[in-house]
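Sync notes, pocket subgroup
Present: LS, DG
LS reminded everyone that the earlier model was apo-only. Rerun requested with magnesium ion included. Inputs:
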Amino acid sequence: MMSYFLPPVQMSPIAPQGISAPQAISVDTPRNRVRSAPLLLSAFLLLMCGCQSPLHRVHLDHPSMGTRFQITVFHSDRDHAQAWVRTAWNRVDQIDQACSDWKESSELRQLCRSAPHLKPVVVSTDLLQVMKKALEIARASEGAFDPTVGGLVRLWRRCHRAGRLPRDHEVEKARKGMGIDGIIIDEAASTIQLLREGVAIDLGGIAKGHAVQEVFQLLEQQGIRHLIIDGGGDLVLGDPPPGRRGWRIAIGTSNPQAPSNGTPLKLLIPGRAAVATSGDASRFTEIEGRRYSHIVDPSSGLGIEGPHQVTVISTDGAIADALATAISVLEPQAASDLLQRFPGSAALLVDPRDGSHQVLGEMPLAPNSDGSVVEKGASALYYEKCPPGSVGQ
Ligand code: ADP
Ligand code: MG
């Protein structure tokens, strides 16, 4: 077995609060939309530290927000790490309860139901923060990402089930209440005011990213530095395991018919980054011979045509998540312009039909031996096979 050495991690003396076993809570939709993202994480072995305390690999998962959350940490104190990962699940469920557009009882659904508001409404910090970032991306993307798209998303889901395109009058009706100018946020007072009746806010394109970012911060504050959080394709990466140059992420190309299927693209990411993938691999519909995604183009009211797959690397989970959704809607030039406004962000546009790809912005990637940053044709276990110090070579 390979050996790695790590200076002792500075542990926090604070005990985890409110620890409970991960609850087998039901998935937040009636249709069990738990699905696998087109993103495969490299697997790691227990890292042993020859003569000092061993570094344990702790891996736990938890269903929430309509997907499967997974956390992998490397830590010398297995019990400490497990206890805090379980605490992290409570955080994820708390964020779901604040931001879900599926749960009738969520804070977001209640807020929308009570609109229009004559006065600002005090909201939770989670809802406030997610809404704030959603509006930031909505403005920067000139509406390609639009948190008020909920009416169109619901219409599109109904049409998806019925296997037909929406009619013009249905699209018009679904637009009722749309427009971010109908939302006023006061951060200092922690309030949101929705000015329009019938507004349907959908944070499905950003809330998971916020959850992985929050969980990352919570665990890092407890001295857990070598960790990777995966919220069904929304990742936050901490420092890589000791002795490694980065995290090897394999992004599956999603079309089962594609010749490239089964040969994921590999990225070696140095760490301390958020990585989000949006794609239609498991959520598309075919109508009249055309393939449409679950991501809606707010200007047409229809799902965008696919297949499509976008991976964004950024400095914050929520921003990466929302940028991946926005870039899915935008043409590459507009996507490039959008990325410029978020320093430290870059995107990988993949054509799932043949695995060809285009990089927008500057990806913080460690190059492979041939100088390329993206490599084709590895198995998801590639990382494990690399000798120490030569990851990615
Ligand atoms: P996934 O849910 O597969 O991670 P995304 O992060 O791209 O994918 O989010 C897609 C979700 O975002 C949709 O299910 C819907 O709830 C919401 N959504 C769809 N279109 C838009 C849009 N143009 N702007 C903002 N949110 C959107
Ligand atoms: Mg997204």
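DG: The radius of gyration is 21 Å.
LS: The domain at 107-194 is CATH 1.10.3980.10 (T-fold).
Action: DG to write up.
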